Predict the structure of C-5 sterol desaturase.
Amino acid sequence: MLLTVLELVSYRFHPDEDERGYAAKDTAASLSMGLGSLLFDAGWKIPIVAIYSFLYELTPLRVPVLWWTVPLMLLAYDFFYYWSHRGHHVIRLLWACHVVHHSSRHYNLSTALRQPWTSVTGWVFYLPMILAGVHPAAVAFCSSVNLVYQFWIHTERIGTLPRPVEYLFNTPSHHRVHHASQGGYLDRNFGGILIVFDRWFGSFAAEAEQPVYGLTKDITTYNPLKVATHEYAAIARDVARATTWGDRLRHLAKGPGWQPAPRTESPAANPESAPA
């Protein structure tokens, strides 16, 4: 919160016409989403901890917590975070949770606090760590480190950093691309702490043109409840309109922009269009 206030003040004394800065309603919505996520996550984590603990007791493997294993745990967590984050962009049901974080048309430290209230599926991606013998508390520690690291990269006040840092780590420049809504920037730079997985798996894009933040179809509300649930409501509408069970499932499992192809009637079904 202190860093957010300092960044806000910096815009007053050093404004930049190329940066969006802060807007009162947007910032209030981000802070409300952050506070709400703390409350909801406390509930969601109870069954997750229970599942992790159950599976940890079943596996015969054990990874000790030592000075040299902790960095390996953090690296493993960042690898699985990359795939979790990528999955939350390409599977619409997961996107309905993650879209909250992308719903602001501003990009500042308060945006980092705009977190979802329905984080009920991401835990699945980290099951390999539990089954490999990493203690659930160690996984939680890695999650916290990963999340805290990503706070400072939500800013326009920092340009590009030295090339070795930009090559290895997720930076403000890389993450601005991730939050942009232009076509060439969509679904890029999924990394948490490291950016190398994006480079290896073909999802990296360097910052070139000025990012335009937000969604391809922006929402116009600052109501926290609507921000948290608007994509679920859109999915429900699409599923209700679907005419086949296959399309209903695809509305859940395909990407956010997927829509069924228009169906044309055959000549037999439409006698007026049949040849004379």
Observations:
- Residues 180 and 212 are 5 Å apart (CA to CA).
- The mean pLDDT is 93.
- The longest helix spans residues 24-58.
- The two ends are 74 Å apart (CA to CA).
